[in-house]
Amino acid sequence: MTLVRTDPLRDLGRLTEQTFGTLARPAAMPLDAYRSGEDLVLHFDLPGVDPAAVDLSVERNVLTVRAERPGPAAEGADLLVAERPHGVFSRLLILDDTLDTERISARCEAGVLTVTVPAAEEPKPRRIRVGRAAADDGTGGTGGSREAPRSTA
Predict the structure, then answer these.
(1) Where is this region: Disordered (predicted)?
(2) Entry pTM
């Protein structure tokens, strides 16, 4: 079988877009992100990537997705065309403080990695009991060494 390439400049342009991406479409790990209720849902296209080769981590509200796609050539084969990107790919996303990074979940199905980041629970108001000052015991002092009751909120 012989493969004929007719336009080397077009092929070079396509390879450049796939390797470095464009402003409209980043290379190698396209992403969709949306809100579903209060949760943030992220979809990463990772066709041909084994879920065991995906590393997902979060540190200081920075979510890192790292994946590796093996090269296309089998041992002893003559590679004719290599247009699909391969190697190690990563994306960094800065998450808002209103998201709960302790409860992130992820699943990979049909070459799509879905990451769900739930909203953080809002802090609930806390009542603080105010104690009364110690009563004057007639000595003209502040009532000795008695202390005001402490809050047990």
Answers:
(1) 123-153
(2) 0.61
